[in-house]
Predict the 3D structure of the following.
Amino acid sequence: MRVVSGIQPTGNLHLGNYLGAIKQWVAMQDQVAATGGDCLFFLADLHALTQPVVAAELAANTVEMAATLLACGIDPAKAILFNQARVPAHSELAWILNGTARMGWLNRMTQWKDKAGRDGASQSVGYFGYPVLQAADVLLYKATHVPVGEDQKQHLELARDIATKFNTDFGVDLFPLPEPLVSKAAPRIMSLRDGSAKMSKSDPSDMSRINLTDSDDLIVQKLKKAKSDAELLPATFAELTDRAEARNLVTIYAAMSDRSIDEVMAEFGGKGFGAFKPALADLAVATLQPIRARLTRLLDDRAAVGEALVAGAARASALAAPTLAEAQRAVGLQI
């Protein structure tokens, strides 16, 4: 089993990133390492170039994101952590796969259609073609599984299409078809101000999210002011169907406590948010305080974080080199 996943280094991570992805990565690295497989987690700094960047910010964000992943529990002894740009084979394979991918496939990508409907002509070529780089990211390591959210399944389907066409066109059995890994335990965490919108770093309201760097007092304040309603919590989660903000807060509690939704509803059913929010705040502080403390220590020695990325890149490059060489031979770039 070989699992590959990446995250863009776009600034501070928030609770939605942690509960929706990183917490699952930490559990996954332990499970996969126990089977003798590999987990590769990378900072997608090449993908960041598809939008305007400030060079100093991108460099700083990459180190800070790596430190955050380490603070959350990613262990370089169990997983390979690196930034994408340190492994040039990502770019090289992406260029080869550009000859296999079809314009029509990329035009059908939902995120591109959303952009093209508004301002597609002003977007970079990289933004149009980044799904091909995503395909290279996973095919380069012959990934068997890729953790994805529901909104990213289309990108993995494209990677499978590219792999199939490449294998067929060149008469090789080079790329296995990676399977999606959609964890039922990975919740979709919504904004604290709007239960219909995902928690996001791009939301102009800082009160909409809990950043992993927030102080204990700020976490308590944000959860106290989180949008809810005046009704009591019911006995079952199904009864919260039309109460988006209530569903979100219960989901956050269950995900942080590693308890089932049913257990949480059994404990708090019949109680109001005056009782639930303080309990949620206490749990959030207890969960995030040690992560924040580890992150502070790591950022006091950024050079060491950089060295960890260099070491991870060396391991990733060793896995990537044979695949890239096979792809080059298949298309005639190596004699």
The two ends are 31 Å apart (CA to CA). The beta strands are 2-7, 38-43, 80-83, 145-147, 179-181.
